[in-house]
Input
Amino acid sequence: MISFQNVSKVYNSHSVALEGVNLTIQPKEFICIVGRNGAGKSTIIKLLIGEEKPTKGRVFFGPYEVNKLKPQEMPALRRQIGIVFQDFRLLPTKTAQENIAFALEVEGRPQSEIDEFVPQVLDMVGLAHRARNFPHELSGGEKQRVAIARAMINRPAVVVADEPTGNLDPIHAGDIVKLLLKINELGTTVILVTHNREIVNSLNRRVISLDNGRIIRDEANGKYVLA
Amino acid sequence: MTLVLFVFLNLIIFNVLADSALAILRDKIDISVYFQTNVSEDDILKVQRSLASLSEVKDVEYISRDLALQSFKDRHKEDQTINQALEVLGENPLSASLNIKAKDPRDYPVIVSYLNNENLNNLVDQVTYSQNQLIINRLANIAETAGKGGVALTVILSVIAVFVTLNTIILTIYSTRDEIGVMRLVGAANKFISGPYIIQGVLYGILAAFLSMLLMVPLISVAAPYVKVLMPEVNINGYFYSNLLKLTGYQLGFGVVLGTVSSIIAVRRYLKI
Ligand SMILES: Nc1ncnc2c1ncn2[C@@H]1O[C@H](COP(=O)(O)OP(=O)(O)OP(=O)(O)O)[C@@H](O)[C@H]1O
Ligand SMILES: [Mg+2]
Output
């Protein structure tokens, strides 16, 4: 459902972020992307969600050829991908439940649906008791769970998490990973970008290793190995 | 923006004033045809009918010799020498005349050339144009120039207003850019993202429209007495209040257009939609 065909990305003449990347991801897969700082992991994500355009090659997502989408066609693509960032990207002026509801509001879903789904998802990420708290009143792990709840509420085909555990302690990081596994069990493709060796090794799923913009390893039951 | 709308409103009112002033003055232009004293009333009435049948002519007024004498006497009631002179003369020295008004001041030459034909030449003593024509043309020119200046000022201020509004909206966009980024990532459609900014621009327009109307209230009441002295026939106070709805409508329309244009430009440039 996702495929990168000979994709290269050059931001400017002295930084080549990706080079000749070929990659296919099947529906319902759970894959980890690992690599050093600056290896090009986030760039892969940005190309997938159409935030950046590839310098060379083509990016497919389901029926969309992402590199050819017009700006007004982007929202349709974005609604099929739930994204979780290391820095959460929650709206500071909205409570946890409002932040989650927001993803449904932008799609123009009726209020009745919002009232029904938001508590369900909050419950799933274990934050029912924090529904009315603002982001600054939540811990990092809680914020990250709100972000995941927002990413999954409109039942996207894919959830992408770019270093979601980056600033969490091991216990909270473990919780997040369990949550992602749960989402994956419900039939959603999960792409997890991480630096965390223990997580990758314990997952024992497909691992794609990047180095200097190239895929150096792509193993079905991979381990966290660099260089 | 309020300032622009204020100038715009002034322009409307100025145009109304200038138009009515010109209309009043135009009404005062006419041609008088004085007949020889020996021409019979019947002949004059015949000429009057034929003039009245011309399509350019609005109105022909017949002033008989008696009537002319009467108004002459009235005008010079106090002047003893004139009264004595009239008595000495014994008979009425004044000629009968026709006052002709054209529908359009530009048609006077046509009427004059009609009067110059042969049949009439031996009846007519003299033809006079009132001196008003020149003044009126001059006034019309002044009004037109002032009107153009007003339009230019409105245009220039509009551009400035668009820039100011643009900047305000850009600032708002800038201060909510994180939010916009999040909206984008969640898949908000462009309409959803830009809607609030467009509404902001429209609200500015509406606010400015009402403010400019409010500003006009004291100005009108200050200006009204002066206008009344110059042109008793024109009542701008009355004009303003009886057209309040229409004027507010114009202001709202113009304000909303300005606001919308500014916000659309802002959104296009800074949200890259
Ligand atoms: N907007 C940009 N403009 C120019 N260069 C960029 C830009 N974004 C990323 N790069 C460069 O592209 C390369 C890959 O960046 P990318 O963000 O994909 O790395 P990453 O693997 O996500 O790293 P990290 O682990 O630090 O998040 C880096 O060398 C980076 O400096
Ligand atoms: Mg990164």
In short: The CA atoms of residues 105 and 225 of chain A lie 42 Å apart. The radius of gyration of chain A is 17 Å. The first strand of chain A starts at residue 2 and ends at 12.
